[in-house]
Each structure stands twice: as C-alpha cells, then as structure tokens.
Amino acid sequence: MSENSAPTAAPGRLRNRLGWALGVLLAVVVALTFGVTTASARLSFGPHEAQYDVTIDQQITLDLGPLGALELDSPLPLGLGARVTVQEIPEDVDALNDIDTLQQLSDDAASYLQFFTGPQATVEDAARALIGDALWRAGLALLVIAAGTVAVRALLGRARRTELARGARQHYGPVLSVTATVLVLVLAVSVSVVRERREQAQATPVTTVFDDTPLEGARVTGRLGGIINTYGGLLVDAYRDNEDFYAQADDALVAAWQDWETTPAADDSPAPEPTASTSPTPSASPSGEGSEPITLLLVSDLHCNVGMAPLITSMVELSGAQIVLDAGDTTMNGTSVEQYCVTTFARAIPSGVDLVTAPGNHDSSDTTAQYAKAGATVLDGSVIDVRGIRILGDHDPKATRLIIEQQQDESYSSVARRLNEVACADPDGVDLVLFHNPRIPALLDDGCVPALFSGHLHSRTDPEQIGQGIRYISSSTAGAQENEPRIGPLKGTAEMTLLRFDPDTRSILDWQLIEIGTDASATVHDRTAWPQIEELPAEDEDEDGSPTPTASPTAG
After folding, report:
1. Of 9-23, 237-251, 330-344, 407-421, the least confident
2. Residue 39 predicted with pLDDT over 60
3. Is 524 helix (H, G, I), strand (E, B) or coil?
4. Hey, which residues does 510 pair with through a beta bridge?
5. How many angstroms separate the CA atoms of 379 and 352, rounded?
C-alpha cells in the first residue's frame, strides 16, 4: 500500500508547494500593484501645497484646477505617470497682515522662478515620498491578503478545504485556462485604456514657450494655455537669464581659482606670529611634518537662492573642502513649501563632505528638519566632533518672516551664557562656535571659545578680537540686499569664505575670501593669516555686541 502511494504523494506535495508559491507570488504582485497605483504624498510645488498621486496614463500632469493643466510625457516605466494637484498657498508663507497683495504676488512669482531654477530637488523629494508611501501601502495590502487567507482557511475548515482542493485538481485545466484568459483580457483592457488616454493627451498641441527648459514638450490645456502663451515667455526669459547668469558666474569662479592657484604665492601658508598667549602655528608640510590642514567652506544667508548651489559645489571641489559650515537663514520664511531650497543646497555638497548648519531667524523647525533629512548636521546646543574639529552652536531664538520678527523664545544674552557654559564645561574643549546672529559677545569673554562664526547682517566684518576670542561675520552667499528679491541674478556681491584649520594645534591658520559680483565675475583673494588672541580689554564693541565694520584687507 505504501509503495503504491509514495509516487502519488510526491507529485501531490510538489503541486501543493507550487500552488502556495504561485499564490504568494500573486499576492505580492497584487499588493505591489495596489501600493504603486494608489501611492500619494502631500508636498509642495513652488509656493503652493500640492497633492502628488501616481497614475497609469503615462503622463505627468500638473493640475491647476479651473485654470487647466500642464502635461508632460512620463519618464516612468510600465505606463506609470503622476498627477500633481496644485492647491492653495499657505497663509504662513507670508504670515503677515501688513504685506499688501502686490508684495505677495511678487514673492509668489519669485517662488515660481525659484522652483523652475532647481526643480530636481522637488522631483527627487516627490519620488522618495511616493516610493515610501507605495511600499507602505503594498505592505499593508499584503498583510490584509495574508490575514484574509488565514481567515478563509479557518472558516472553511480542513474537510471543506480538502474537498475544494480535490475539485480544483479535477478541473485544473479549465480553471487554469479561464484564469489565463481573464488575466490576458485585463491586461489588454489596461493597455487599451492607457493608449487611449495617451492619444487623447497627445492630441493637445505642444507649447513652444518652454523650449530649452525642464518643461520642454509640455502640453497646456484650459485657460492656462492662453495665460502661458501670453505671459509665460516673461517667466521663461527670467529663467534663462537666471540660468545664464549663474552658469557664467560658475565658469568665472573656476577660472579665477585656477588663476589664483598658478600664482607664485597661492600655495604659501601664512602663519601668524606667535604671542605670549599662543604657541607657533605650523604650516602644512609636504614632507610629513605635522598633519595636513582641514579646509572648511563658510556660507551664510542663502535665502533660497538656489542659483548659488552649483557655485558652492564648484568651490568645495576646487578647494578640497572637507566641511561646509552654513551659518543659517538658508530659507526665506521657514515654511514647509521651501523644502526644495534646503534639499537643493544639501545635495550641492559633494559626497563625503560634511555639512553643518546653525539655523537662522528665517529658518524654522520644519525647514531645519527637512535640511537634516537631506543630510545636514544641525547644531542643537551641544558639542559635536567633525573630523576632529569640535563645533558648538544652536538655532537662532528669534523667528522672522519676511521683515516682521514674530517671536523670540530666548534672549541672545541667555544664549551666550548657555553656550559659554557648555564650552567651558567640555573636557575636550571647543574649537569654534557657529551661530547665526553675531550679537552674542559674552560667549567670547573668558577664552573657552576661541572663534565665533556668524552671518545675519548681510555685511562682512573681518576677523577681530572680541573679549578672549576672534569673531568673523560672513556676508550673504546669496548676495542678499535689503528690499531686493533674493531670486534671480545677484543683486549684491555674494561671498564665501575658506578657512584652514590645523588639527595639531587645534587652531585656524588663515581665511580666504571668495566673491561673486553682480556682473557674474569672480574674485579669489589671497589667504590672510588668522589673528592671534591677545590679552586686551573688551572695549571694541557696543554693549549689545554690534560689530565695528572693518574694510576688507584685499578688497579695499
């Protein structure tokens, strides 16, 4: 009996296992299909909130409601597309009662230009959010299928399952044929629907307004078509002017750096004269005496001018900087719709380079969290070690939206005392403090902090001794000027500063100013020795810590 049943049992077990495997595979396919085709995310589009949804029409559709829609062929596989439903501009983008409508419209137009200047960040953020939502939905669907399967099996009972399995085996061929036929029909209908939708979309003529832009080949429907044909050229011209300006500035920066490198004094490492309070500062030695200096790039007050992102990338790569210090005000209003700003800047930093930021008064917890998610290390009042450099800093306690200072959760004098206590209590010491607002002079009173780097004023103050430390105030890397838009070609000189840090003596060797002019020119100044701390009475500043502006030793 057993000899005759053994050959029969083996194919039965194999068939059962194959059935289970196919069932699991089908469940996974169904779950993934459900997850992908129903994925959605709420993000931003320019100054707007927006709903992103996956579609199966092979189109990227920008739905502007009653105005119409803008359509592009989708680069996604398997007939997938996406619909972006543009919604309202959040009130907190302006968060002001006394800003007139014309000012709001001007700011919104600047945000549109800003988006089209750096759309990659928004696209990548949307893709990441949709993929995450699709996986979550697929996992949930798979869990429901598994739970449903277990429940059905329990309700049927063993006897009924055996009976159904026996019947299925007897009608295996017809069942398989019917199943295959249904699948083929479903696939054929799906392909037909997608093809019909694609043909309907392609029936709309392509607008030529967006030629040579990321939206080239777009089709516009509804009233939006007339608006774009009439006024779109103005925005596209602004986009092209913006692209041309920063491309020219980037080329000028590369050329200026190469010219500086070829000058005889370019590789000299100025070392300050030792004083009674300091030890000699050695220069980097090619022969291996002492460690190589660590290069840092300081930027500040970027204010969403994403046009400067490629220049920051170039400066990091040209100088070999290992650390980028962002002294804050990376955004304009600290709203969630400015995610593409912080994402663009974070991704401008080459792989392997550390990005450290101290949020400013125009940043917020929302944009700071987005910056951190994109790769930035956000200072939070504690000491961090970055490549052996011990850095302390924190967010600016004041929150400003446009020009209105809305709230302040801590006084600057309190911040100075708190950070000073942290620095003095740290057993390994602090090498520098990064804090947006420079008006915290008490921080440098007793020598626990040797250097303070700030921004905020949109005007540079060269390194100067305050108390028992050196303070340096960076100008705006966006060329920000009062009452001028931060978007488009520079309205003022943009500045970046290179610093070289000696890891052996744990001191800054020198600083080097980089300027980008309003004519897209670039100037690379020579390195200047970092001043040494002397025992001097604290009498060089006002009581509130306002800096005494000093002229650049190189610019004159």
Report:
1. 9-23
2. yes
3. strand
4. 500, 529
5. 19
Instruction: Determine the pLDDT at residue 50.
Output: 76
Residue 75 to residue 23: CA distance in whole angstroms = 32
- Contact (Cβ atoms closer than 8 angstroms) between residue 292 and residue 323: no
Share of the chain above pLDDT 70, in %: 61
Question: Mutual orientation of helices 172-202 and 119-170 as an angle, nearest 10°?
Answer: 160
CA atoms within 13 A on the CB side of 225: 11
Find, among 274, 253, 248, 303, the residue nearest to 110 by Cα: 303
CA 223-227-231 angle, to 5 degrees, is 175
What lies within 8 Å, CB to CB, of 82 at 6+ separation is 52, 53, 54, 55, 60, 61, 74, 76, 126, 130
Beta bridge partners of 391: 384, 432
Residue 241 is predicted with a pLDDT of 78
Provide the b/e sequence for 311-325 (b: ≥16 CB within 10 Å): bbbbbbebbebbbbb
Q: Which residues contact 275 (CB under 8 A, 6 or more apart)?
A: 532, 533, 534
Can you read off the two tokens belonging to residue 101? 């409508």
132-146 average pLDDT score: 83
Q: Element (H or E) spanning 29, and its range?
A: helix 2-38
* Residues ≥6 apart with Cβ < 8 Å to 554: 513, 525, 526, 528
> Residue 528 gets which letter from DSSP?
E
For the segment 511-542, what is each residue's pLDDT rounded down to a tens digit?
999 999 999 999 999 999 999 988 765 454 44
DSSP state of 444: G
- Give the distance between the most distant pair of CA atoms in the chain: 107
Closest Cα partner for 359 from 434, 433, 421? 434
* Nearest by Cα to 165 from 290, 321, 19, 47: 19
On whether the pTM is more than 0.70, the answer is no
**Average pLDDT of span 93-111:** 44
- pLDDT tens-digit map of 424-457: 999 999 999 999 999 987 899 889 999 999 999 9
Geometric angle at alpha carbon 444, from 438 and 445, rounded to 5°: 130
